[in-house]
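Field log, afternoon session.

UNIT: design team B
ACTIVITY: writing a sequence onto a fixed backbone
BACKBONE:
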């Protein structure tokens, strides 16, 4: 009993001495105890606190756990950082030395909790960025070695957060090429849950660096306390959740430490990538809307600007680039109301023309046999048609069959004393250039700089990355720093993109990596959008775009109308359905238009015109997911609502067909209950309009009742099929 009283007295004394750092956004608070001389302690993250709550929260049972656990003199617990000091000591015990705040140009406040090891001159600074207009807090760590010798970092997470044990579910995303961003949701188990990626050059195919934690049980779209976390990094990562014998789930996120021990020299600072956190009591949907607004306003290149409607040449002609076909495709997309044409892979190579995917990467010169009038001729053709011109490049890569590799074999990643591994390489020849090498950084910059200097008319670049790092070693790094090659690759990548964006801030650049292999907020400050997947099948895109939408807004998701049968699944999906799916993202086309009938072209022309009318709502509005395809109820539905709630666009797709099937009616969300909305169907193919065409409904009625969706389309008998989809525009009177 006396021991219990003593412990209680000690806790009360600590609470009385607490020096709380209160980090706030419009609707949330994060609280860290930063008592000088002690490790920083995590206290709270959730709804915004009042002054009274802040002063008494410790009495309610705060976590009071290290805000950044390190490997030191305790046993068994998971840690965020571990090091080996210059003298061989493997413990790290940082304590707070002070707190600093600074305001950035965009109004964001950066709070730094400064810590130094209690014995060694080794600094661990915890950084938190909060935005005055967004409910997102970015957290990262900066460590500086002031010791006399090198300190080796063996573990270096960006951030840690304890989650109170309970009915906590985690939403995560997994997949593979052509099947990205599959959603998986389950309660957190005891033991360790690890999400990781070790591709090296791309980090979003097999797993994603974003998770959501639903604190009140099974995830709900618009209700329930939820925390979202997104690691903003371009390279290998590791997310860990350890549910141990304490009352907490312990969440860590950061760069993967596997085979990446980092030797920090005297005076050097190591900066981890940020983890963006968001809290909402409006369920997963609230987290998504928070991330979308934060991303558009602060993270995504040109995030508040509308995207052009484009035609990309890849599925239309693949590598068989020819000048007449390029001109024909430009004329076709212009005639249908498109705004941009992008010439994909296959336009380059002199000594080794790019006729298959096994040669020429790195030789970024025009193949004049395919394009007699060169890129300038295509730019002129685009101008004649009143559209913009874009081009595909893959500047981080080369092939063994290329002039670049013949002249500079030292530029590629490869292990010393080992033959090149080409098993699994694209075309059996593709290699990754060593972006840690400043000469390679210059080379990659020059690829872009040469194109945009010589052809300033180029308005769009599709930047691809079609290879993992499979040859583990750097010919540039010293022998004792080979474990840096994963991390230094991405440092060099960042330096190069910074140079490109400094000189060419306005060009639109798509982030493509065998499809969605680089869908991560770490890439998007340099990129305007990403290619969701190489799989353009409309039905499968419903699932992939659904998962992707949890953290990424529609303005960043390139979604294209493709051919039927589809080139990946061979599924035959009608044009109406393909169009309705593509319109829920950044609308584009991935098809050879000359195979389309006049009727199909006319249908597409009308759809493009209607998309232009609702483009601001889709690309800049608030997303509400209504009926998940993962619920297996035969349909999927979502909607976008303008910030002022004056306009909305509702999407509905049937996902399976059975005779006399029963589908649920889907209530809407996000509308103003007191406003009256007029309903108009977009992309209509029915012989007769829907019964509610042109009718008026209050937002309250639409959100409590919804509108009945017919199970098929009222079309002529020979046009009937087993697919159905609807797009409705709602306009407030």
């Amino acid at each position: 009993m006396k021991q219990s009283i003593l412990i209680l007295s000690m806790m009360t004394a600590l609470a009385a001495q607490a020096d709380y750092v209160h980090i706030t956004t419009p609707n949330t608070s994060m609280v860290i105890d930063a008592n000088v001389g002690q490790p920083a302690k995590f206290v709270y993250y959730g709804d915004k606190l009042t002054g009274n709550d802040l002063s008494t929260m410790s009495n309610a049972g705060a976590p009071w756990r290290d805000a950044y656990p390190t490997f030191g003199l305790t046993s068994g617990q998971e840690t965020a950082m571990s090091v080996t000091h210059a003298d061989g000591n493997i413990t790290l015990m940082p304590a707070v030395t002070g707190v600093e705040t600074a305001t950035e140009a965009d109004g964001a406040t950066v709070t730094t909790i400064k810590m130094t090891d209690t014995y060694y001159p080794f600094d661990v600074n915890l950084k938190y960025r909060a935005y005055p207009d967004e409910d997102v807090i970015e957290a990262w760590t900066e460590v500086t070695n002031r010791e006399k010798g090198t300190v080796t970092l063996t573990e270096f997470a960006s951030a840690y957060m304890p989650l109170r044990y309970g009915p906590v579910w985690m939403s995560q995303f997994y997949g593979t090429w052509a099947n990205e961003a599959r959603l998986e949701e389950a309660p957190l188990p005891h033991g360790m849950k690890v999400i990781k990626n070790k591709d090296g050059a791309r980090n979003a195919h097999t797993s994603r660096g974003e998770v959501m934690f639903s604190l009140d049980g099974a995830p709900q779209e618009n209700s329930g306390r939820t925390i979202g976390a997104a690691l903003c990094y371009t390279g290998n990562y590791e997310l860990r959740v350890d549910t141990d014998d304490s009352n907490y789930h312990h969440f860590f996120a950061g760069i993967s430490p596997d085979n990446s021990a980092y030797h920090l020299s005297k005076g050097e600072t190591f900066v981890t990538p940020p983890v963006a956190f968001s809290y909402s009591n409006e369920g997963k949907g609230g987290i998504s809307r928070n991330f979308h607004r934060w991303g558009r306003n602060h993270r995504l290149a040109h995030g508040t600007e509308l995207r052009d409607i484009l035609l990309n040449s890849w599925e239309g002609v693949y590598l068989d680039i020819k000048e007449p076909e390029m001109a024909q495709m430009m004329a076709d997309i212009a005639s249908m109301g498109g705004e941009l044409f992008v010439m994909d892979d296959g336009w380059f190579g002199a000594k080794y023309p790019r006729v298959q995917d096994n040669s020429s990467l790195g030789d970024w010169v025009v193949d004049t046999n395919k394009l007699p009038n060169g890129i300038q001729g295509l730019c002129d053709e685009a101008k004649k048609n009143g559209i913009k011109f874009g081009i595909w490049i893959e500047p981080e890569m080369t092939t063994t069959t290329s002039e670049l590799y013949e002249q500079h074999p030292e530029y590629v990643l490869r292990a010393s004393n080992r033959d090149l591994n080409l098993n699994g390489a694209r075309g059996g020849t593709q290699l990754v250039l060593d972006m840690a090498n400043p000469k390679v950084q210059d080379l990659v910059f020059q690829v872009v700089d040469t194109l945009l200097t010589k052809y300033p008319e180029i308005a769009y670049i599709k930047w691809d990355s079609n290879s993992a790092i499979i040859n583990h070693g750097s010919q540039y790094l010293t022998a004792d720093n080979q474990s840096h090659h994963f991390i230094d690759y991405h440092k060099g990548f960042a330096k190069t993109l910074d140079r490109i964006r400094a000189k060419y801030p306005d060009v639109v650049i798509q982030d493509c990596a065998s499809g969605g292999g680089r869908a991560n907020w770490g890439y998007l400050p340099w990129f305007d959008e990403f290619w969701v997947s190489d799989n353009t099948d409309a039905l499968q895109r419903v699932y992939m775009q659904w998962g992707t939408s949890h953290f990424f807004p529609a303005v960043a998701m390139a979604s294209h109308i493709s051919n039927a049968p589809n080139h990946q699944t061979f599924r035959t999906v009608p044009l109406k359905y393909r169009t309705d799916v593509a319109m829920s993202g950044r609308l584009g086309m991935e098809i050879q238009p000359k195979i389309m009938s006049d009727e199909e072209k006319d249908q597409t022309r009308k759809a493009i015109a209607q998309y232009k009318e609702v483009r601001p709502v889709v690309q800049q509005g608030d997303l509400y997911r209504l009926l998940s395809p993962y619920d297996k109820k035969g349909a999927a539905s979502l909607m976008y609502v303008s910030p002022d709630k004056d306009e909305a666009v509702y999407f509905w797709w049937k996902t399976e067909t059975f005779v006399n099937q029963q589908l649920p009616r889907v209530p809407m969300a996000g509308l103003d209950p007191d406003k009256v909305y007029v309903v108009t169907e977009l992309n209509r193919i029915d012989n007769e309009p829907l019964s509610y065409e042109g009718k008026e409904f209050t937002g309250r009625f639409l959100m409590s009742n919804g509108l009945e969706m017919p199970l098929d389309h009222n079309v002529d008998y020979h046009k009937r099929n087993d697919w159905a989809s609807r797009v409705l525009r709602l306009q407030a009177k």
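LOG NOTE: The first strand starts at residue 20 and ends at 24.
NEXT ACTIVITY: expression trials, pending approval
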